Amino acid sequence: MFDSTDQFLEAIRLSGLTPPPAIEAGKFYRFPGMNKGASNSAGWCTLFEDRQGGCFGDWSCGLVETWHAQRSNALPDKQRADFAQQLKTARSQAATALQVRHLDAANRATLIWNDSHPAPSNHPYLIRKMIQPYSARTRNKTLVLPVMNHSGDLNSLQFIAADGAKRLLGGGRKQGCFIPVAGDSSKPNRIIICEGWATGCTLAEDEPAALVLAAIDAGNLESVSLSARRQWPTAELIIAGDDDRQTLGNPGATKARNAAIVAGALLALPQWPEGSLVELSDFNDLSVWLAGGAA
Which has more confidence, 179 or 1? Predict the structure, then answer.
């Protein structure tokens, strides 16, 4: 029969996370986030001192769960109050740990950014995508892109290898942050928000007067769009979504549409000419295909 610790660990596993094989009550643990490598530490958990409750989560996907031990009777008022206090303390501890994680990543991002150099226009990824480097830098032949917030703080970095492989700096904040592609942020009249940086570069070339921001992925579009609306309430806001036609539910178009609705923005999706490949999904793909390249 499982004891309460086993039940807690099983609840974490059922959420899709892989916790440490053994834990002690009252300690805060870090482990890899969902589908992350062994060096990742976005997952977290804490089992309360009385072993009758706990909470866990994954900073990489925003998961936060509360767990109660199985009981046959309702908790007395005193125990219910104790549980609420332990939960408040655990969540505060997790929030503090996340802040420390983000601060450490921001410091590392600054060091790496300062050690990088302006990207050359003949970088293989830029050539294949038919885009200019804009503010991109390179380090060890890898493109380095700044991930920032609306206060102008460097929070993290995105790295793009010559073959197009992408990764974010470990521990960096992503939600609500973006890669500034091009344009003047002081008082923009038109703001275009897209997913990927290469797509943003294509849009910036088509709309040189616009402020173009890349939200990194579809899941971050809504957060970036809402913060942009608050920052520039009178600007024309356009969400340029991906059209993931081959993916169930078309997450690119769906999330772009939702972001446009909640932020009071216009929605733009690629319009595919007859004969275009179904594998194409974003504005950069379309631009490269029209130019006779291979997206």
Answer: 179
- pLDDT over 90 (residue 210): yes
Whether the predicted pLDDT of 179 surpasses 90: yes
CA torsion, ordered 177, 182, 188, 193, to nearest 10 deg: -50
- Strand arrangement, sheet containing 63-68: 28-31, 43-47, 53-58, 63-68
Amino acid identity of 81? Answer: A
Question: Within 13 A of 209's CA, how many CA atoms are on the CB side?
Answer: 4
Q: What angle do CA 136, 140, 143 make, to 5 degrees?
A: 25
Copy the structure tokens of residue 149: 């917030």
CA distance 67 to 111: 39
Check if the beta carbon of residue 106 is closer than 8 Å to that of residue 91. Answer: no
Q: How far is it, in rounded angstroms, from Cα 183 to Cα 173?
A: 23
Contact 186, 152 (CB under 8 A): no
Give dist(CA 137, CA 188) in Å, integer: 25
Q: What are phi and psi of 190, to 5 degrees?
A: -135, 130
67 beta partners: 54
Q: pTM for the complete prediction?
A: 0.80
Residue type at 241?
G
Task: Look up residue 273 and give its two tokens.
Answer: 């000419």
Comparing 59-68, 159-168, 244-253, the range with the smallest average pLDDT is: 59-68
For residue 290, give the amino acid letter: L
**Average pLDDT for 119-143:** 96
Alpha-carbon distances, residue 1 vs 4, 50, 93 (angstroms): 10, 19, 31
Closest CA to 222 of 260, 177, 268: 260
What's the distance, CA 83 to chain centroid?
32
